[in-house]
Specification:
8 helices, globular, 76% helix
Length: 195
C-alpha cells in the first residue's frame, strides 16, 4: 500500500486528461457521444455519494473525478457543432438501461448496491463509446483514458481495506480505460477491418 497522498497525483492526472479531451471537444477534434458522457457523469457521481456514505475516504476521489470530467466534456460538447455524434437507437437503449440501474439504486438505498448498480449503469452508458472507439477511433482521444487508468492504478495501490466499496469502482475504471485506450490508440477496429 502506498500513501494516500498519491491520490492527489492521480486526480491531477485525470483532470489533465479531462481538460485535454475537453479542449479537443471544443476544437471539434473529438466527437463525444452525448448519452455516454452525460451518464458517465451521473453514475460515478452517484457512486461517489454512496462511497462517501460507506466510509470510503480519499479513494472516493477517483470516482468523483471520473464523474466530474465527463460532466465538463458533456457540457463542452454543446459549444462546437463539429463535436456532436449522432445519437442512435442503440445509444438510447444503453442510456435507458443505465438510467434503470440508477433508479434501482434510488429504490434500494444500500451503499454497495448503489456502487454495483452505478458501475453497471456506467458500463452500459459506455457501450456506445466503446463501439465508436472501435469503428471511428479518430473521433476519440486516448490521453484521458491513459491518465484515468493511471489514476485507477494509484487508487488501487492506496487501498488498505480490500472490500467491495473500496476496490469495485477503481477496478472497473481501470478495465474500462484499458479497453478504450487500446481501441483508440492502436485503432484496433481499423486493423481488424484490414484483415
Amino acid at each position: 500500500m502506498i500513501d494516500e497522498r498519491f491520490l492527489i497525483i492521480g486526480v491531477f492526472l485525470s483532470l489533465v486528461g479531462g481538460l485535454s479531451y475537453l479542449i479537443d471537444t471544443v476544437k471539434g477534434k473529438t466527437q463525444p457521444n452525448k448519452v455516454t458522457w452525460f451518464l458517465w457523469a451521473l453514475a460515478p457521481l452517484i457512486a461517489f455519494t454512496a462511497e462517501v456514505q460507506q466510509g470510503v475516504g480519499w479513494q472516493a476521489s477517483l470516482t468523483f473525478i471520473v464523474g466530474f470530467n465527463p460532466l465538463m466534456i458533456f457540457l463542452a460538447s454543446f459549444f462546437n457543432k463539429k463535436s456532436t455524434w449522432k445519437i442512435s437507437k442503440f445509444d438510447l437503449v444503453c442510456g435507458c438501461l443505465s438510467v434503470l440501474g440508477i433508479i434501482l439504486w434510488l429504490i434500494t438505498k444500500v451503499g454497495n448496491i448503489a456502487i454495483a448498480l452505478s458501475i453497471a449503469a456506467d458500463a452500459l452508458a459506455g457501450v456506445p463509446t466503446i463501439v465508436k472507439a472501435y469503428r471511428a477511433p479518430e473521433t476519440e482521444s486516448s490521453l484521458i483514458y491513459l491518465l484515468s487508468g493511471i489514476n485507477a492504478v494509484i487508487t488501487l495501490a492506496t487501498i488498505d481495506q480490500w472490500n467491495f466499496q473500496h476496490y469495485a469502482f477503481p477496478v472497473y475504471i481501470l478495465l474500462l480505460c484499458i479497453i478504450l485506450y487500446t481501441l483508440v490508440k492502436f485503432k484496433v477496429g481499423r486493423i481488424l477491418k484490414l484483415k
